[in-house]
Amino acid sequence: VDIRDRFGFRKMMVAVTEVGKIFRIHSKSGSIRWVRFYPDLNIKYFFQLKKSVNFPPESVVIGTDAQDNWWLSVINPLTGNETQFTSLPYSVSHAIHLHFTGNDHRSVILLVEDSSNIIHYFPPTPSSLSVINAHKSTTFFYTHNAHSVTGFSITTHGTSVNAQLVWHKSWLHAPETVVSVVGSGTKMNAHGPARVLSDNTVMWKYLNPNLVVIGTVTKHDSTIDTLSGGRGVSEKSDEEEDTTSVALEECVSVYVVDAVTGRLVHRTQHKQAMGPLSIAHSENWLVYHFWSTKSYAFEIATIEMYRPPNWDTKFFSSYEEANTPVNIIQNSFMFTSSVTTMAVTNTNKGITPKQILIGLSSGHVVALDKRILDARRPIRPGNRPTMEDQLEGLMPYYTIVEPNPLLFINSNRSIPLLRSIHTYPSHLESTSIVTCLGLDLFYITFSGSTTYDRLDPNFNRPFLLLFLTLVLLLTLLVSKLANNAILKQLWK
Q1: What is the pLDDT of residues 333-376, one digit of tens each?
Q2: Cα 73 from Cα 53, distance rounded (Å)
Q3: Angle at CA 377, nearest 5°, toward 373 and 383?
Q4: What are residue 298's DSSP bridge partners?
Q5: Rounded to an integer, what distance in angstroms lies between the CA atom of residue 488 and that of residue 449?
Q6: Please, how many CA atoms are within 13 Å of residue 192, restricted to the half-sphere of its CB?
Q7: pLDDT at 246
Q8: 130, 141, 388, 390: most buried by Cβ count inside 10 Å?
Q9: What percent of the chain has pLDDT over 70?
Q10: Residue 7 has what pLDDT?
Q11: How far apart are CA 477 and CA 462, in angstroms?
Q12: pTM of the predicted model, to two decimals?
């Protein structure tokens, strides 16, 4: 919930816990302003229906009770007062928040009914229906479980709204399990559409806001006859029965899919690898972390996507790009720590270089510059960059990436059981708002490239004012002396 201030740092955060408690927390002081408890109720979704700019703000809480009956509650996030409680006569399989607002300044919540394609919208008003009709051609969503990912579009018939199946990718009959699905967010902030190389050529970024990254973990069961004379042979006596040994070879796969058409943009697989798998996606690149059973070390890999050199389209469309090839550049590094979650800093215009926020199992969060995980880092003798590398800002490739304790954004305040990191833009381009969730809640305003657009809070402003006054007086004095010198010169 926004509480307006000059830089957009002060926020009234609303946190929902697993036990059914909702807190309003002040971001600057960390004080709890109110607490609302839903006993015997399981909260599934929490959305901001109306912002505090259009007073009074409203938030929607959706969940189930002990009998698995669904309910919906509307509360005021500033006061915690409940203004509406409704029992839903249907089960909800998925809830989608449309950020478009109607005439009443409310956004729209879409509730997909379980075991059917019927969509119920909240608030059930003509304004909400007009918002859906206005944006239905550009609104798509997806659902996922452990074995499939499904994409839908929205259709309307009068006052009824339905979900229409567009694509479906299933791993039900494959030994793959979906462990992570990451989208690009509601807004893609990219400062430039291209990357200029040292020879002044251009590599166009593949900026697709509809990309979804799907991470799977695979187990291959390979049965090897121990008496066949191949690998894994063991000597058996005649009295022993023929037995077999089962070798399990795990691998990690990453799929890049267009959520509108279901097109598979890229797929990569790491054999002899396993989870846990953490993925971060932004602009035209993605970074993911996994465990390699081949090198017995953690690895962090990066993939960058670029358009072909002859690309000349100014506007993007998932339908028109269905047959356009994508140039893929990827690389991997050894990482010296286990990771629980990853995120990318988010700024208002995307001008500030991206920082990858990596949550370590120790509870620390390290800010890693994206240039360190650049997929185009070249191998140079002696790790000395060439002049071309320096012009482009490329660092020579080095196998190991080690988190520097000086780059921990939470210093010595570790976050136990860290599980997610969320980033939001502020009013300043240099600063991103970061919230880390675990057993504790950590909030910080992070400036990865220093605060180049504002003065430091400890800046000596009185000295600056005194200095400017002194300069002004000296300017007037010198100007008067110069005029007197000119006047004397004219009288000679």
Answers
A1: 999 999 999 999 988 888 888 999 999 999 999 999 999 999 99
A2: 21
A3: 110
A4: 291, 335
A5: 54
A6: 8
A7: 41
A8: 141
A9: 91
A10: 79
A11: 23
A12: 0.84
Give the residue among 360, 373, 380 at the shortest CA–CA distance from 400.
373
Adjacency order of strands within the sheet including 264-271: 176-183, 211-225, 244-258, 264-271
Lowest mean pLDDT among 143-152, 184-193, 412-421, 447-456: 184-193
The β-bridge partners of 285 are 282, 304
Q: Which helix (H) or strand (E) holds 432?
A: strand 432-437
Terminal-residue alpha carbon distance, the chain? 75
CA distances from residue 294 to 205, 272, 297 in whole angstroms, order as listed: 33, 6, 8
The reported pLDDT for the residue numbered 228 is: 33
- With a cut of 50, say whether residue 438 has pLDDT above it: yes
Q: Both tokens of residue 457?
A: 């809070």
d(C-alpha 339, C-alpha 360), whole Å:
5
* Geometric angle at alpha carbon 102, from 100 and 103, rounded to 5°: 150
At 223, which amino acid appears? T
User: What distances in angstroms separate CA 329 from CA 196, 373, 457, one per listed residue?
Assistant: 16, 12, 42
In this structure, the strands spanning 400-401 and 327-335 are parallel
